[in-house]
């Protein structure tokens, strides 16, 4: 197996073990499989916990508990290896691309699609909140077919 980071091939097992340990997790076989599914890709990956459970069931064909999946994903998010994108109160996506960037959300297919920063003009926020500063701006553009 090969892991890609910024287009370069890397030995993935040692990287996955380091990701798990730095996230406070023991590198079990199940967690290593989760790492492989999330990070052994050339392109970034958007998913919900439900999506990931289905992919694990289909691709790995091994039982990994929902608690293990949930805890692993949230530990990676807390460490900064994943970004959470909340689309509403009931649904969050996770993204393996942790840089600041925008998204399209196809509301019919529930597909989250990367939108580059240069594809959006400068955003001017006119309101300030006392004692707060803006650290990043990320736009979620909801789209649908115009039929």
Helical content, roughly? Answer: 25-40%
| Number of separate domains | 2
Shape: globular
Main β-sheet, spatial strand arrangement: 3-5-4
| Regions with little confidence, pLDDT below 50 for 5+ residues | 1-10
Kindly state the number of beta strands: 8
Beginning-to-end CA distance, first to last residue: 43 Å
Full CATH superfamily name of the largest domain = Winged helix-like DNA-binding domain superfamily/Winged helix DNA-binding domain
In words, what does this structure look like?
With 147 residues, the chain is α+β, with helices and mostly antiparallel strands. It is built from 4 helices and 8 strands. Helix 1 packs across helix 2. It is globular, with a radius of gyration of 17 Å. It starts with a strand and ends with a strand.
Feature tags:
single chain; 147 residues; alpha+beta; Arc Repressor Mutant, subunit A; 2 domains; three-stranded antiparallel sheet; three-stranded mixed sheet; 8 strands
Short description:
The protein is of the alpha+beta class and 147 residues long. It has four helices and eight strands; from the N terminus they run ββααβααβββββ.
Give the arrangement of secondary structure elements.
Blueprint: E1 2-5, E2 8-11, H1 12-22, H2 29-39, E3 46-47, H3 49-60, H4 66-79, E4 83-86, E5 92-95, E6 102-106, E7 111-115, E8 140-143
Parallel strand pairs: 6-8
Antiparallel strand pairs: 1-2, 3-5, 4-5, 6-7
Helix pairs in contact: 1-2
